Amino acid sequence: MSESILLSRQYLFAHTSTPIRVMRIDDQEPTQPHQHEFAEIIFILSGSGVHETGQFRHHIHPGDVMVIRRRRSHAYRETRALNLINLLVSEPVLENIASHLGSLPGFHSLFTFEFTRWEQKDFRQRLCLNAADLRTACADISMIEEELAHGGETGSYLARARLSTLLALLARRYGTHSRGSAGLDQRLGQVLSSIDADPAAPRSLSEMARAAAMSERSFQRYFQKATGTSPATYLLRKRIQLAEPLLRDHNPPRSLTEIAFLCGFNDSNYLSRQFKKLHGISPREYRNKHR
């Protein structure tokens, strides 16, 4: 196989303040393997072909949606009248959206754990939109294009908002239109979404691994690869994020002990230590700073 070409973030987003780009491709030709320094969300509009990533090849059809995260090599083969839309998004933008939409069922399965579909060589779990949903997605993409063309601070804000709406639609549809029974990406995604939805709930590593139908060792390995951190650290940070607005709320102010219990900590001292480790200041200092 020929060496994979790397497409840089600077090359595609050099002339825009909003690291989002829409590329419409008619009659996509076969390509050499290539990687990106950004995320790519591909919408197959019509035609057919073979999509290749690593040693895994699968046929693509109208309605298929593929998520290619940073540094994932892929290529098109055997294309026939293949028309598609490439939605290119910088990883920081996608991660910011994930911080707000991560509790939605299907979001982490589709976007955070996308690599498991390639590693498991099981693309039956891919998202395939029906005709109505594909039209809706294309309309959202057109609105993103309009806001990007408008430019300025308002255009950038609205383009990101439109993108969030589109990704929420895809997350909602993933469980409905994905092919086959729940795969590894869906099981892992359900665990991560449940943490985002309710960080304060008591959870042990063994319970999370059991919910994903995995051994603790495998669960930790996949979790670390997807999020860049361990399950325990991810859960800890989510609980601290949950505490932040409660510390800023002064109507009326809650005690640190009450906030600790509301956010899943066993005592306020542990919350204080972990909060200072993450933010460099104590919860009391954080509260005074936001008076």
Automatic annotation (TrEMBL):
Q: Which UniProt keywords apply?
A: Activator, Cytoplasm, DNA-binding, Transcription, Transcription regulation
In Gene Ontology terms, what is one molecular function of this protein? Answer: DNA-binding transcription factor activity
Give any Pfam family that matches: HTH_18
Name the PROSITE patterns for this protein. Answer: HTH_ARAC_FAMILY_1, HTH_ARAC_FAMILY_2
Under the heading InterPro entries, the entry gives: AraC_XylS_family_regulators, Cupin_2, Homeodomain-like_sf, HTH-like, HTH_AraC, HTH_AraC-typ_CS, RmlC-like_jellyroll, Tscrpt_reg_AraC-type_HTH
Chaperone as a keyword?
no
Keyword Cell membrane tagged: no
Which parts of the sequence belong to the HTH araC/xylS-type domain?
A: 189-289
Protein name, per record:
Helix-turn-helix transcriptional regulator
